[in-house]
Write the structure tokens for this entry.
Amino acid sequence: MEQPLPCIPLPYRLLLLYIEPVFALNGSILCLFQPELFLHAFSPKLKYSHDSQLVFDQLAATYLLFAFNQAVVLRVAKDLRVWKAIVLGILLCDTVHLWAGWKVMGTEVFVRPWLWRIEDWVAISSLVIPMAMRAAFLREVGIEKGEGKAANGKVKALGRDK
């Protein structure tokens, strides 16, 4: 049974439909064309090898899929369950990204933000802040129950009358 899409609050729409797709597209481009920079952003200890480019190309494909799912699929989906499934999938992915960062940094550094490089601050903040928003979205924080209705009675799916 379809779960009609309620009015999605602006902060969620900005993050899920605009900001994150751009970031994912940027990550894809970096993996394809500047893998050294991409790798350094997550760990200065690791050295890029052209022999591993296949892995970066595959990661680029994954980021491109995220960008597409958020920029296109969420815009055409009119069922809240589809939105939640995509958001949950990205939250799971981000959890693994955070865990991988923890492994590379080591617990001694990870739990002491004052020891982080600027790249660590950017990488971890760009994971943790959206993760918190995704968790809130999945719990429907700020989302009206049932279909969002405009004053004129029309359904407001993405914050606009349809």
Q: What stands out?
A: The mean pLDDT is 90.
